[in-house]
Structures are given as C-alpha cells and as structure tokens.
Inverse folding.
C-alpha cells in the first residue's frame, strides 16, 4: 500500500520531496565513491610500519615502492583507459637514464630536480610515441609498443659510450636529499624518499581517475564506439593519459636509478614491461590499490622463492597468471571485493536499489 | 668476384635460410591469429618444446635428426590440441589483455619446465653427416645445413601454398579468415577448422624449433626471445596471409642478417625500425585486411 | 533555410560490394523521416557514413550547411548530430546515471577536467536525472546497465543520444530486439521527441513507420529506390513488390535471432 502511494506521488509531481530525496541519493552515491575511506589508510600505514619493523630491509622496501609507482602508472593506461601495451618499460628506462646520464655526464646530481627532469623527458617521449601509436589497437598496438621499447634499448646499446651498455652506469653519486639527508647504508633515507614521492604522485593519480576525465577514460575502455558517438575526442584523451602515465613511469625509473645508484640497459627489457603488467594484473587493474598489492606481493614472493629456486618461481608466476585469467579476472583485490560483497559488507548500493525498487511503477 | 658482391651473396644466403626458419615457425601463428584473432604468446613455447624433443630423441634415444624433427612436429601438434580445446577455447571472446596474460603465463611455465628438465645452458644437436660441412660454389663455401633449410623451406611453402589455394580445406580457411560470420552462415565448421590449423601451426612451430637448434643453440629463453620475431613477422605480414608471412619473413630475415654483417653493433635495431615503419603505414601489415 | 542534414551523392563500398550508391537525401529542421529497406540494404552503413564512423569513397555530408564530410565523429557530435545503435553500445559496467552524465560531460567539455571529482557538479546530475525522468528511467538511475532488461537498455541508448541535445537524431531500429509488449514504451518516446529535432528513424515495423513519419525513404541495395510521403509510398506498387511484400519474410528473420 505504502509503496503504491509513493509511486503515485512520484509520478504525479516529479519535483516533490520524495523525488528530490531520490536525486540527493543519486548525487550522493556518485560523489561518495570518490571519498577517502578509512581502509585506504591501510597500505600507507603498512608502508610506515615496514620502516620500523624491518629497518634492515629498507633497500628492498624502496625497490618495492618503485615498482608500486611503476605499476600505478600502468594502471592509469591499462586499468582505466584499457590500453594494452607491451612496452611500458620504455618510459621507465627513459626516466632511469635521464637521471643516470644527468649524474654521470652532466653533473646533475640534485635528486628532486632530477625526478622532475625525468618526468618531463618521459612525458615528451610518451606524447610523441602515443600520438602515433594510439591510433592502433590489438596486435598492431602490442607490436608497436613492444618494438618501440626494444628500439630504445638497441639505440642505447649503439651509443654504449653514453649509456654504458649492458654494463650500465655504475657508482652514480647523488647529492644529499634536500641538501641535508645523506644516503645511509640501510637505505632509510631512500625508503622515506621513495614513500613520499609515491604518496605525492598517488594523490595526483587519484584525483585524475576520479575526475570527469578519469570517467571519460573508463568510458573509452568500456565502449569506445559510444565515446566517439557522443563526441569524445578519444585519441586526444588517450594521448593525454598516455603522456601522464609515461611521465610517472619516468619518475619511477628515476627513483630506481637514484636508490640503486646505478642503471643498465636492462631497464628497457621486455621482461620489465611484462613484469609490471603481471604485478598489476595480480593486484587488480583499474582500482589504484591493485598496484600496491600486486607489486608488493609479487616482489616479496619473488624475493623469497627466487632464492629458493628461480625456476620454481617462474613456473609459479606463470601458473598464477593462468589461474588469474581463468578464475580471478579482477585480481586479488577483486577477490577481496567479491568476498566482501559475499559477507555482506558492501551493501550500500544494494540498499539504495531496494529503496528504488519500492517506488518502481 | 668483388668483395661487396661476396658479402651481398652471403647476406642473401644466410638471410634466406633465416627467413625460412621464421616462415616455418610463424606461419601457423599467422593463420590462427587471422582465424580467431587470438593473441598467442605461447607460440614460441611450442617451438621450444619441439626443439627439446628433438634434442632428447637424438641425444638420448639415438634417433636420427630428420625422423626426430617429424616426431617432434607430430607430438607437439597433437598436444597443442589439448591446450586449444582445454584452455584457449575459453578465451576466444575475451579481451586481448586476457589472451596475452594467459599465454604469457603458459610461456613462463614452459620455460620453467624446460629449465628444470634441461638446465639453462644452450643445447646443441648431432647432425647426420649429410648435413655437415659446406657446399662450395667456387667463390665461397656455404654451410650445407643452411642450404638444406632453404630447400626444406621452399618445399614446405609449395605444399602449404597448394593446400591453401587449391584444396577444399584451404578454401574454407581463406573464407573464414576473410569473413568468419559469412563462412559460418554457409555451413563451414570454423571451430573444427581452427583446431586443425592450430595443430598444424603448432606442429610447424615445433619443426621450426628443431631446425633452429643448429642455428642459434637451444635454451629455455628461446620461447620468449624468438617469440618477438615471430610476432613481428605475423604483424608485418598481415594476419592470416600466407603471402604476407612469407614476404615479412624474407624482409625481416634478410634485413636482420644484413644488419648483423654490416653493422653488428646495431643489434636488432633495424628490424624493429622496419616493423614500426611498416605498421605505421600499413597497420594491418603487408597483406592484412584493414 | 538550410537543411539540418544534407547528403549528396554518397558512395561507399566494401571490397567489391557497393553498399551505398549515390545516395542523396536531406532532413529539414524538425523532420520526421523514416528510412526503410530490406535487410542488408545499407541503412546502418548510411548512418555510419553520416556520423563519420565510416568514410565515404565519394560524396558530401552537410550538417546545418557546414561540410562535415571529412570531420571526425567528435566534431559532428558537437555540431548537434546524435545517433543510436542497432545493437546497444552502452557503458555496461557503469550505472545508468553515469552513462547519461558521460554524454553531458562530453557535450559540455566537462570531461576534460582532471581535478574536480566526477559527480561533484550537481547541475550535470540534475540534468541527467531530468533526462532519465522524461524516459521513466529514474528508478534505474543507480543500477548498472548490464543488469537492466534489454528493453530498458534500449531506452538508455536513446537517453544518451538525447542528453547530447542533438539538432539531428538518427535512430537505428530503436525497438530492435525488444519484445512487442515493451516496444510501445520506446516508440512512445520516439513519438514525443522535441519537434525541433530533425529525426531519421530506421524501422522495420510498417505500422510504426506510417504512424511516425511524414516522409519515407526506401533504400534498396544501397541506392535510394524512391521517397515520398507515407501515402505515396503506401500506394507505390514497386515498393510493395521489393519491400512490403517481404515484410513477413523479414519478420521471420528478425524473430530468428537477427541482430
Ligand atoms: N564492415 C563491413 N565490411 C564488409 N561488409 C559490410 C560491412 N558492414 C556492412 N557490410 C555489408 O554491407 C551490407 C549493408 O549492411 P548494413 O548493415 O548497412 O545493412 P542494413 O540495411 O542496416 O541491414 P539490417 O536491416 O540487417 O540492419 C550488408 O551486405 C553487409 O554485409
Ligand atoms: Mg542495420
């Protein structure tokens, strides 16, 4: 009975209070999904906890943070815009070599400005290659991205007088951070440095993916034909996000060089492109924290198992990929979410729906 | 004979042998990708498996090189059907990304298995006497093995060309590559056709893997290292096109060989540059459907 | 006055198949035009040529007098051209509301904003809900599109196009695939469209066509076979022969899983 009355009310005058309340709910629903949640503090708290709990493992910790940043940049283009690339290591490598060459050949040893330089150079590379490559899809795009990365590697090898070839540029020296904090044996400074950079970049990435622009990227991933039809400048949007992601991968590469104090041409390896993709997939694409979880889990497992047996580790990661594709297409985070929904934690949306069902004509 | 001519002939000869290897190994990948649009990054693993079977048969069981090649092709072709039916089939409608991930996963598993069974050190294979040594053409001696590779390649190309262009099954495959829906609507069983070509393509890859041992040595990383080349040949040639695959194999084979003769420091730079240029101009490759 | 949409001598072929042959037509402001023709006549292809999904091999397309033949799809959409697809093209993983907001955001350029939170602009949401309201879709606003029954999805398809505030609207079989018990909902919407919008509708149901259209174009094998008022078309013997006579046949085909 009550349901019928609300129905009649909603239909006779759509502007009445019930309808306005429904509108508020809808608006609230859209905005609420972008608010910070308490659970989002967890990965950051974990990063801080690691600093105090494993003070002698922080060099490894910095490596993990670098890979999280790298995976985050891939998430922007793969997870949100749906661009499948096999050459993302190209931008990581460009960033790595920007600060590497800067320090080795030009005496540019100030670290923070080095990161900016890496961001700019990698972004430019991303813009130029993206402009040409992002017109294509499928196998063509896969091959073009793959070939671009390998070409950069080969070009670096050609000029091994500059790049140091596969022996690399060892023993790079960078200034103390902010002119004050020197690099210590255990990598304490490096860890905090990497964590702060990650947090800053993460903030920007989070804003982007939850912005209307980020929503448009999701639209391109979900249905590019419709995006064209509603007048979206699809190519431009893709080039924009590709440029940003390239820049962030460049920052990750620069951090890699700075925290390791060396860089070799292997940063351009296909394995590097594949590895970051595997991390992201295992964590879960298109959900920001998938990059955290995926990179952390992958690196820790790799560290542990590859000491036991690299062969076993490789087999395991292959098996994980196969299983992920067959049974957990949304990664580990996706599994968590499913479990959460199963145990009834995520019923907010459903509640909204139930209310609406009551007023359905 | 002037020096440059000798070099040119050497490049052509070695490049041709290399191109035959590329063609034999890639052609199956091209046709299956053309038929189903399935991105199969495990193709290199099938080739590697073929190579290791040849190593085992010749070294451990003392079977001759040529029969070993045939056995490897048949075994891998048959086993690939299990993968196709059991795994690949579930992902025909999935995204590129999922196909890439599944098949990279399989490739990793294959590499790990090969490392476990055969170790990371490159293997070689004992050749029968008739494939050893050189054939002298006066101005230069050519390795018999490469000459054999070229002849075998030409024979296989002729057979495949005949099967593709002149037989009933070949016509069906071409129709299905051209327009799958249309082919299905006139009653062609594309699923079955695909399984057949998949098995044939994997078998040929295994043959290519066996043939490659003498050229490059065989180590587990073969599955990924050469995969990139196979993919390039397929993409540059155009999916599902025999002619395109052959042309791409020749171009890539000769240019890569030439680059290594004349400007070794550049490594693979030239083939990647060529790949990018061709694909930017013709995104679907030489003979692909736009 | 310039026509809202003008198509002149448009041609297109796929390989040896001439799918569009020398098509010339125009829609005045507020036009109600039906495009009919047997399956495979090239109706969808014509829409794809007009909207820029496909490039014509020759001919011109004018939107409000402006030559858009070589323009991108985005330029055309911004010029006031909207379409629906014969097969749903929706953001299936997003809510209905977000589907509509996407169209509004692209129309207003809001989707270039990287800093504001999506959904923070209340005016966009209100407008989207107004559109949904007018199509009786408000109750489904927060449901994911893929969870809706097909008939409702067809309505979302139209809602997105309307959210673009088009001057010219091309509807490709809007009720296709919807059981006839529900199709009247969609056809009501079509019948009540803003009289200023020029509408071209592709439709197989001749009752609908005759009720809705003030003008009918018959397309056969890619070429305009004839055009005229419903009365003229109804009494045209040739049309009966090529098309109306086939209606039963087509209906059977469509029932048999035609997409
Ligand atoms: N991309 C394409 N490549 C090749 N042929 C195509 C393509 N698109 C359409 N065709 C062919 O063009 C012809 C016209 O197709 P179109 O979809 O325009 O017909 P239609 O009039 O919309 O038919 P229907 O009533 O079935 O929707 C058909 O024969 C179709 O097979
Ligand atoms: Mg149609």
């Amino acid at each position: 009975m009550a349901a019928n009355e609300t129905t009649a009310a909603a239909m006779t005058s759509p502007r009445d209070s019930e309808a306005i309340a429904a509108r508020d709910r809808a608006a609230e629903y859209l905005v609420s999904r972008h608010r910070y949640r308490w659970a989002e503090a967890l990965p950051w708290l974990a990063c801080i906890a690691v600093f105090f709990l494993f003070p002698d493992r922080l060099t490894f910790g910095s490596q993990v943070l670098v890979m999280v940043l790298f995976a985050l940049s891939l998430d922007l283009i793969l997870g949100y815009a749906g661009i499948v690339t096999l050459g993302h290591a190209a931008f990581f490598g460009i960033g790595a070599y920007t600060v590497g060459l800067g320090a080795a050949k030009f005496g540019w040893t100030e670290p923070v400005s080095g990161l900016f330089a890496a961001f700019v150079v990698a972004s430019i590379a991303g813009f130029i290659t993206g402009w040409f490559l992002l017109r294509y899809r499928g196998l063509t795009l896969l091959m073009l991205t793959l070939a671009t990365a390998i070409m950069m590697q080969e070009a670096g090898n050609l000029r091994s007088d500059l790049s140091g070839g596969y022996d690399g540029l060892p023993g790079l020296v960078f200034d103390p951070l902010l002119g004050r904090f020197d690099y210590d044996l255990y990598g304490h400074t490096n860890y905090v440095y990497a964590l702060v950079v990650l947090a800053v970049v993460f903030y920007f990435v989070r804003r982007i993916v939850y912005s209307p622009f980020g929503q448009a990227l999701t639209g391109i991933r979900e249905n590019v034909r419709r995006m064209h039809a509603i007048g979206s400048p699809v190519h431009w949007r893709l080039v924009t996000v590709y440029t940003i992601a390239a820049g962030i991968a460049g920052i990750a590469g620069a951090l890699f060089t700075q925290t390791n104090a060396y860089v070799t041409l292997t940063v351009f390896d296909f394995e590097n492109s594949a590895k970051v993709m595997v991390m992201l997939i295992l964590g879960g694409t298109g959900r920001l924290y998938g990059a955290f979880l995926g990179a952390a889990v992958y690196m820790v497992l790799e560290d542990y198992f590859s000491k036991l047996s690299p062969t076993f580790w490789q087999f395991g990661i292959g098996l994980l990929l196969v299983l992920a594709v067959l049974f957990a297409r949304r990664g580990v985070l996706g599994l968590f979410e499913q479990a959460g929904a199963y145990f009834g934690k995520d019923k907010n949306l459903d509640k909204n729906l139930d209310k609406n069902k009551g007023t359905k004509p | 004979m002037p020096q440059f001519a000798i070099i040119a002939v050497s490049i052509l000869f070695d490049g041709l042998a290399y191109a035959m290897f590329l063609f034999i190994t890639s052609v199956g990948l091209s046709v299956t990708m053309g038929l189903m649009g399935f991105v199969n990054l495990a193709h290199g693993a099938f080739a590697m498996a073929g190579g290791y079977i040849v190593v085992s048969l010749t070294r451990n069981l003392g079977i001759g090189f040529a029969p070993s090649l045939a056995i490897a092709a048949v075994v891998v072709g048959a086993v690939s059907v299990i993968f196709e039916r059991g795994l690949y089939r579930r992902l025909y409608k999935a995204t590129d990304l999922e196909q890439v991930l599944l098949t990279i996963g399989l490739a990793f598993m294959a590499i790990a298995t090969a490392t476990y069974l055969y170790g990371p050190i490159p293997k070689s294979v004992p050749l029968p006497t008739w494939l050893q040594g050189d054939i002298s053409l006066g101005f230069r001696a050519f390795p018999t093995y490469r000459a054999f590779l070229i002849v075998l390649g030409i024979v296989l190309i002729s057979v495949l060309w005949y099967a593709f262009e002149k037989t009933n099954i070949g016509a069906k495959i071409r129709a299905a590559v051209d327009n799958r829906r249309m082919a299905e609507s006139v009653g062609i069983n594309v699923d079955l056709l695909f399984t057949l070509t998949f098995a044939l393509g994997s078998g040929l890859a295994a043959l290519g893997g066996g043939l490659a041992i003498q050229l490059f040595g065989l180590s587990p990383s073969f599955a990924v290292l050469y995969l990139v080349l196979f993919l390039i040949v397929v993409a540059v040639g155009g999916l599902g096109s025999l002619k395109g695959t052959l042309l791409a194999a020749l171009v890539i084979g000769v240019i890569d060989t030439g680059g290594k003769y004349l400007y070794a420091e550049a490594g693979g730079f030239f083939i990647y540059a060529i790949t990018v240029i061709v694909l930017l101009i013709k995104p679907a490759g030489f003979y692909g459907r736009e | 006055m310039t026509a809202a949409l003008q198509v002149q001598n448009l041609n297109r072929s796929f390989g040896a198949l001439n799918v569009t042959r020398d098509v010339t037509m125009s829609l005045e402001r507020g036009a109600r035009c039906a495009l009919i023709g047997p399956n495979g006549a090239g109706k969808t292809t014509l829409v794809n040529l007009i909207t820029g999904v496909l490039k014509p091999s020759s001919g011109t397309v004018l939107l409000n007098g402006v030559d858009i033949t070589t323009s991108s799809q985005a330029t055309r959409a911004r010029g006031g051209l909207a379409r629906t697809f014969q097969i749903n093209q929706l953001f299936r993983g997003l809510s209905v509301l977000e589907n509509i907001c996407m169209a509004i955001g692209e129309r207003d350029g809001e989707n270039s904003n990287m800093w504001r939170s999506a959904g923070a602009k209340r005016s966009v949401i209100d407008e989207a809900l107004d559109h949904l309201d007018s199509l009786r879709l408000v109750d489904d606003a927060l449901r994911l599109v893929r969870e809706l029954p097909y008939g409702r999805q067809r309505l979302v398809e139209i809602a997105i196009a309307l959210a673009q505030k088009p001057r010219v609207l091309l509807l490709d079989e809007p009720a296709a695939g919807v059981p006839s018990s529900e199709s009247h909902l969609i056809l009501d919407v079509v019948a009540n469209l803003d009289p200023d919008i020029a509408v071209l509708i592709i439709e197989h149901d001749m009752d609908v066509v005759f009720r809705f259209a003030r003008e009918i174009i018959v397309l056969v094998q890619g070429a305009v076979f004839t055009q005229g008022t419903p009365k003229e078309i109804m009494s045209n013997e040739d049309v009966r022969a090529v098309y109306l006579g086939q209606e039963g046949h087509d209906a059977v085909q469509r029932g048999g899983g035609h997409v």
About this structure: Residues C 14, 19, 37, 39-45, 86 surround adenosine-5'-triphosphate (ligand 1) (CB under 6 Å). The two ends of chain A are 13 Å apart (CA to CA). The interface with chain C takes residues 14, 19, 22-23, 25-27, 29-31, 33-34, 207-208, 210-216, 218-219, 222-223, 225-234, 237, 349, 352-353, 356-357, 359-361 of chain A (CB under 8 Å).
